[in-house]
Design goal:
By secondary structure, the chain is mainly alpha-helical. The protein has one domain. It is about 50% helix and about 0% strand. InterPro entries: DUF6587.
Amino acid sequence: MWQQIIVALIVVAALAHFCTKYLPAALRRQIVGALSKRGYDEARLSKLFNIKSGCGDDTGCSSCGSCDSAPPAKSEASLKRVIKLHVQR
């Protein structure tokens, strides 16, 4: 019985690590939002999930910078890629 409890704790810890590190930021924000509605501390959750707190509140998108406009268009010269081949004979 103790072995099953220990294995379950290890699996839960691995799942929590996966959720905090490898999930996309939008999904992590949704998880933090859902848990904060249930009464958990949003500041702690946002620190744990590596997102900036305050997305979606009165400060809006300007607080986290994730809603910035598209990056500037690249010039035509930077779009060309040159592959240099070195022929050895």
